[in-house]
Amino acid sequence: MNFGEVITAMVTPFNKEGEVDFCSLKNLIEHLIINDSDAVLLAGTTGESPTISDEEKIKLFEFAVNNYKNKIKIIAGTGSNDTNHSIELSKEAEKIGVDCLLLVTPYYNKPSQYGLYKHFEKIASEVKLPIILYNVPSRTSCNISSKICIELSKINNIIGIKEASSDFKQIAEIISGVEKEFFIYSGNDGDTLPMLSLGAYGVISVASHLVGKEIKKMIRLFKSGNVKEAANLHSYLLDIFYGIFITTNPVPIKEGLNLMGLNVGSPRLPLIEMTAEEKEAFKKIISKYNILRKS
């Protein structure tokens, strides 16, 4: 199954009481559909998965499936550093009817490469849904090597990887070693165009909350052979690609959405809102993209 070129790793909106805000979630998903997201990822890193309970995750999955199943692809973040826990949550997401699972590498306990293989193999054997692996060693201190990724790609329902290592040697080895049906997604907005040049398929994006149409256009330009135009658009978007990481993700992207008028609230502790200085610097960064709410 193809989940499109632009998947948005979506924030989780919270209300003033710190609870999941389903009214804002509705507005956000509809905004993403209009702005060229092909799929949404719920309860990923940008969705503050470490501070969202399983009960809340299930409600998020149910809301998205019940309201948007035929309008946009729904991907559920069900990975953790506990294989059995990941299996349980993955089975629940499958029962609900999500389209795909995203499984992050186990964090903190630092398994061996063979341990990683067995972890993902075991989860894949327990569900029928397509699975996208998520490699983000800067957060997990755990890297899926190209060799293990290629071996995992041979499992029928492991259909892709979100590669956020920025290790272009490793990424090139994966792309050259897997079948063409295996989807390689950039996990960093700034890496998208360089990864496309190596043969990647698309991006699981944070910036697409704000500039989804432009990211889709960049990918389309590159794939149609308009490399210079794609490169120019990439260069234009670099400030926002890196500006949304002026402090820990998803703090800035939530601020950007709030500034747009899509009120998604504050992050949950231990994350906190940006300082006044950070907010001012961030507002200057994104002001050139004409996305701020008109006062």
Topology:
Blueprint: E1 6-9, H1 22-34, E2 39-42, H2 54-68, E3 73-77, H3 83-96, E4 100-104, H4 113-126, E5 131-135, H5 137-140, H6 146-152, E6 158-163, H7 168-177, E7 183-186, H8 192-198, E8 202-205, H9 208-223, H10 227-243, H11 251-260, H12 276-287
Parallel strand pairs: 1-2, 1-8, 2-3, 3-4, 4-5, 5-6, 6-7, 7-8
Give the structure's gist in a few sentences.
The chain is an alpha/beta fold. The chain contains twelve helices and eight strands.
List keywords for this structure.
295 residues; alpha/beta; 8-stranded parallel barrel; 8 strands; 47% helix
* Rg result: 18 Å
User: What's the tally of helices?
Assistant: 12
CATH superfamily: Aldolase class I
Q: Which CATH-level-2 architecture?
A: Alpha-Beta Barrel
Number of domains: 1
Q: What ranges have pLDDT less than 50 throughout 5 or more consecutive residues?
A: none
Query: How are the strands ordered across the major sheet?
Result: 1-2-3-4-5-6-7-8
CATH class group: Alpha Beta
Question: Would you tell me which CATH topology applies?
Answer: TIM Barrel
Largest sheet: 8 strands, parallel, barrel
Write the element-wise H/E pattern from the N-terminal end onward. EHEHEHEHEHHEHEHEHHHH
Distance N terminus to C terminus?
43 Å
Helix fraction by DSSP (H/I, runs of at least 4):
40-55%
What is the average of the pLDDT values? 96
Given the helix and strand composition, which structural class is it?
alpha/beta
Shape: globular
List how many beta strands DSSP finds. 8
Could you tell me the strand content as a percent range? 5-15%
